[in-house]
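Problem: given the chain below (299 residues), write out its structure.
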Amino acid sequence: MWIFPGQGGQRSGMLSEVPPEMIQRVKKLTGVELKDTAEAYQDSIQIQLGILLLQLFDIRQLKAIQQKPDAVAGHSLGIFAAAVAAGVISEDDAIKIVYVRSTEMQKSYPTGYGMGAIVGLTRKEVSTLVKKINSDQQPVFTSNQNSELQTVISGSLIGIDKVLTLAKETGAQKTVLLKVPVPSHSPLMQKVANVLKQELSKVELHDLQCTYLANYNGHASKKVTEVKYDMINNLVHPVYWDTMMDVASELGVDTTLEVQPGQTFTKLVKSKFPDFRTITMKNMSLDDIEFLLKKWKRG
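Solution.
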């Protein structure tokens, strides 16, 4: 199974090996000149297009060594590269849709909003704290479920800060404000979903070539309509990553490959399923990846 992370792992210089023609393609399609600097990656449009392009490059590299996924799992932004890997959407259309997505997200909430993570409390416990703080003046919502004891919250920075403080007082092991400048995966993103629905109605989508694990419910699918729904409504729903991994295990998945730029989800997989064989493209050469995948398939 190929894993595609979302925002958070971006870093200066991450596009250094991406062919210039791919970078120029982004500019031609969107008008955006990718800078690949720490300063540029304070901007949501630069972050999302940069990560998508890096993942498209990784897909090309894997295809060049005759690899294809049995299943794909994207987290948030990662669903678009996952859909490319599954054969559902073209590279060009993915770039154009992510440009619209990132532009609308940034336009909707330019300042004062974001996401935070709480480790060491159950989702039910976090939801109880969120209910104490959430209001029209300081909206905050329970969001992504990355593991049994790692829950993300989304909303206003004031509301998030208050929930994180309560979480520490309640016994959370760790709380952190994430490097995501918008309230993703919450009802606050419905306007963005409405725009994406219009844009994706113009895009030609194709049948899946592998199993797709959906963010919005964690279930496995081979229906293009469900992938389309995920691409449209992904920002409105929490990402049920923990459920996605349970489903992957039930499907017989025992090997994961995480594309760049991070390794966070490999760590989550290893903590949940210690026997899984894992690869992170961030830390391994393509030659080593090819060797391991061929060895494991023979085994």
